[in-house]
Each structure stands twice: as C-alpha cells, then as structure tokens.
Design brief:
Length: 519
C-alpha cells in the first residue's frame, strides 16, 4: 500500500513538473528562445508520454509480483508493456530505439513537387537527344510510341507501387515491402525466396553499367564532332574522358557530386531550349513530307528501345514513394510528370527531325552549326562526366552488396577492412569497371545501338514486363477485369517489342564490333 501511495505521489509530482516546464518553455518561446521545432517538440513529448507509461507498467509489475498470490491470474501484457499496433513490447526507457521509432515518423519528407522533380530528372535526361533519330526510322509511328510509352510507364509505375501494399487483418491497406527487390522476392517465394531479387539486381546492374558506357560514348562523340579539325579520333576522346572519370573508383559517397546535379539539370534544360529555338528559327524549311507513315523494319525495333530507355524510372519509384510526405499524391505526381515528358519529348523529337530530316544524326546536337555546336556540346560533355559517378556508384554498391557483403551468402570475402577502408583488390575491381566501360565505348561507339539494346533488354523488362507480371501474381484476386486485360496486354506487347529490339540491336552491335575489329 505504501508503495502504491509513493507511486501516485511521484506521478503527481511529475505531472506538476511537466506543466511548469511547459509554461517555462512557452515563456522562453515568446521571448525568442525556442530550442526545438514543433515537430521535434511533438516527438519528444511522445517519447516522454511513452516513458511514463512504461514506468507505470513497471511499477504495476512490481506491485503484482509483491502482492501476487498463488493461482492468481498473470497480469495482462497491456498493463505492463506498451503495445504498438497490438504487438511487441516498448524498448527500454530512454533507449534510442524507442525515440527513433517515433522520431522516424517526423523525418524530413519530400513533397509531391520534389518527387516530381526527381522523376523528371530521370525521364528527361540527356538521352532525349537520341529521340529524333528514332523518328527518322519510325516516322509518325515513332511519335505514337513516345505517347504510348509514357502512358504505359506511368501505369506500370503505379501498379509497381500497389505491389508494396497489402490488406491487414483490420482491412487497412499497409505497406509491407520497401523496394523493387522485395516485390520480386515476394513473387518467387516460397520456393525461390531470393531468385526474383537476384534477377532484378542483375537487370539493374546491366542498366547502370550500360548507362555509364553511354556517357563515355556520348562524351567521345560530342568532343570529336565539336573539334573535327583536331588530330584526335573519337576513341582518343573517349580515352581522355575515361582518364577524367578514373577517380570515381575512389568514391566513398556522392556528397561532392550531388552538389552539381541541380546545375547540370538546369544546364540540360537550357540546351534543349537552345536546340528547339534554333529549329523554330528554321520553321520555313521544315520537311513535313519527310515524316513517313511506314517504318524501317530493320532499324525501327532499335527506335523502340531508344524510346523505352528514355522513360526508365521504375527502379527507384518504391524508395521515392516511401519518402513522400503524402504518398496518396503519388498517382497525381506520376500523371503530370509523364504528361509533361510526353509533350516535351514529342515536340523535341518532331521539331528536330523536321529541321534536319534524313540528315538527322544519332546525337541531335551534332547537326547544329559549328558556331554553336562546340559550346553546346562542351556543356553536354560536362553534364555527362558529372552524371557518370551516379550510375557508377550505384552499380558498385549493388555489386559489393551482392557479391562481397551478403553475409554467409557472399561469393567473395568482404572488400572492406575492419577499419572501413577499401582493400587494394576492391579498388582494383572498381578501376576494372571503369576500364570496362571504356573498352565497350571504344569497340562499340554507337550511341543509338547501345541505347536501343539497353532499352530493349533491361528497360522493357523493368518498366513493362516485371511490373505487370508482379501485379498479376500478388494482387490477381483483387484486380478488376480491365486491370487484368491491361497487365496481360502490356506483358505481351512489351515482350514482343523487347525481343525484336534486342535481336536487331544485338545484330547491329555485332556488325559494328566486327567492323571496328577489322579497322
């Protein structure tokens, strides 16, 4: 009884102390001495409340253990431990886990506009420069595919996010997965619980490495066409670009590189505007009669891969949606970003092709007059070189996590020492990856072929095939008939386009490789 009275007096004293502290905090806040933000104050208040409940639970536990009798019912867990969603005890008082679990809800999130900016950066990158070349071989059907790809990629992005959620026992929709790999593993479970994740990782590595190769190819191409009078070949320019990129092997994080990402994106938009402005200045000479209704059967499948590759963003959408302040705005964000991308890409591709018609080159800036071509291309090369570390670092992380840091399932010993430093052979592997991108750029210096191959292989797989397949596998019981029809149609059409584009792109690359080997 005395213990119970002491606990009540302690609670009253604590309550009075909390109220007095609140008054003092309010007085200091009015005086301009606010120690924490409103979100931090709420988080600390929740931690204090839960800490009090936990202490009271411990006191009830002591009273039950002191005054318990034989045969008495054991205390309910709800009287002793704080239950989160009905399960699991509260971590110890004052622990980092208790406060981090609550304060995690107050972490800075991104708005729908910021999420849209990230998606726009992914689907409006410098690979848009290859779209006029796709119109050259596809005509009006190429324009239709730019629209069709935007609609399909927007839809598959939405259904991919739907695969992250499931309905709990209370009928509420809750997020149970965090990434593309988690979705793939869930589809292959229980027989092959890690097969799907490995397939997605392989596709992701291929796409990231091919993106690095494309940056080296486009750098050599742009510099060669900017200074044609210099006695430097395109291969030599690619070697020079790789020498500049070699320090990427020493990267530990992307803090230094990320500072330039916004400037690079703004510079790219300015370049696109300059190209369109030049094309509009020649509107009187536009060759409308050159836009065909028929297609080049041999080269049009390559155009499909180019168009699909320019829309790839699915691989990071789960992480992006999970960091949004209001995930319900994700669908709206996907709608306006892909509508804007469709309009801008269609106009850019059509206007550029109308200006140069059959003389349209793989990289459209090579068609510009020499007076402005060098300036524009130098900015593009700078953007390509500054963009290279992002996919390179992501590919290195996936490789290291899968092959060297996957616990007992790792194929090779850890490439990091006990002090966190990269071992010499790990650094050698990174340098080898940079050199590999150079060799591919030297032997296959064809921007459109590489872009078409990547889009047909990994782009179509990650954007068309896998999202529709996962959606059918995980949510088929709850899907309406038109969703099933859309998923099946996208899977079939995407599969046909992927196979045909891959075969034609591979044939072109083999032929180009043989030609370069003979030279």
């Amino acid at each position: 009884m005395a213990t119970l009275l002491r606990s009540k007096l302690s609670n009253v004293a604590t309550s009075v102390s909390n109220k007095s502290q609140a008054k003092m905090s309010g007085m200091f806040a009015r005086m301009g001495f606010q120690a924490a933000t409103d979100e931090e104050a709420v988080g600390f208040a929740h931690c204090d409340d839960l800490d009090m409940e936990h202490r009271q639970g411990l006191q009830m536990d002591i009273l039950k253990s002191e005054g318990g009798e034989e045969g008495a019912e054991p205390p309910l867990e709800g009287d002793i431990h704080y239950q989160r969603d009905g399960t699991g005890p509260l971590p110890p008082s004052g622990s980092k886990e208790a406060c981090s679990e609550l304060s995690g809800q107050g972490k800075p999130k991104i708005t729908a506009w910021e999420a849209g900016w990230n998606v726009t950066n992914a689907i409006q990158g410098m690979f848009v420069l290859g779209l006029p070349y796709a119109i050259l071989h596809g005509g009006y059907l190429g324009l239709f595919l730019i629209i069709f790809a935007a609609v399909v990629c927007c839809y598959t992005g939405k259904i991919l996010i739907a695969c992250l959620y499931e309905e709990n026992e209370d009928g509420e929709i809750v997020r149970v997965r965090d990434s593309y790999v988690d979705i793939a593993n869930a589809c292959c479970a229980p027989r092959f619980p890690t097969l799907g994740g490995r397939i997605v990782n392989v596709a992701q590595i291929i796409e990231l490495v091919m993106t690095c190769i494309l940056y080296v190819v486009v750098s050599g191409n742009l510099m060669y066409n900017s200074f044609p009078n210099l006695p430097v070949s395109q291969k030599s320019w690619s070697i020079i670009a790789t020498a500049v990129l070699l320090p990427c092997a020493f990267l530990k994080n992307l803090k230094a590189v990320s500072k330039f990402s916004l400037l690079c994106t703004l510079a790219h938009f300015v370049i696109n505007i300059l190209v369109i402005a030049y094309c509009l200045s020649r509107a009187r000479d536009w060759a409308w009669d050159k836009v065909k209704f028929y297609i080049d059967v041999k080269k049009f499948p390559i155009s499909i891969g180019i168009i699909v590759f320019s829309y790839t963003s699915q691989i990071f959408l789960p992480s992006l949606e999970g960091n949004m302040q209001n995930p319900k705005e994700f669908h709206c964000m996907m709608n306006w970003t892909h509508i804007a991308a469709c309009i801008l890409k269609g106009l850019f591709a059509l206007v550029a092709y109308l200006t140069w018609a059959d003389e349209t080159k793989e990289v459209i800036t090579d068609n510009l007059p020499s007076t402005i071509r060098a300036v524009v291309n130098i900015f593009l090369v700078a953007k390509a070189l500054l963009s290279y570390p992002l996919p390179f670092f992501a590919a290195v992380e996936v490789l290291e996590r899968s092959l060297f840091q996957d616990g007992n399932r790792a194929f090779f010993p850890n490439c990091y020492g006990g002090d966190g430093r990269l071992k010499s052979w790990g650094l050698t592997l990174r340098c080898a990856l940079v050199v590999f991108t150079l060799l591919m750029a030297i032997y296959v210096p064809h921007f459109a072929l590489l872009m078409g191959l990547t889009g047909s292989l990994t782009g179509a797989g990650l954007c068309f095939l896998l999202p529709s397949l996962f959606h059918l596998k995980l949510l088929w019981r709850k899907l309406l008939w038109h969703h099933v029809f859309f998923d099946v149609a996208i899977f079939v059409i995407g599969g046909i386009c992927s196979v045909s584009g891959f075969i034609h792109s591979l044939e072109g690359l083999i032929e180009a490789f043989r030609t370069n080997a003979e030279d």
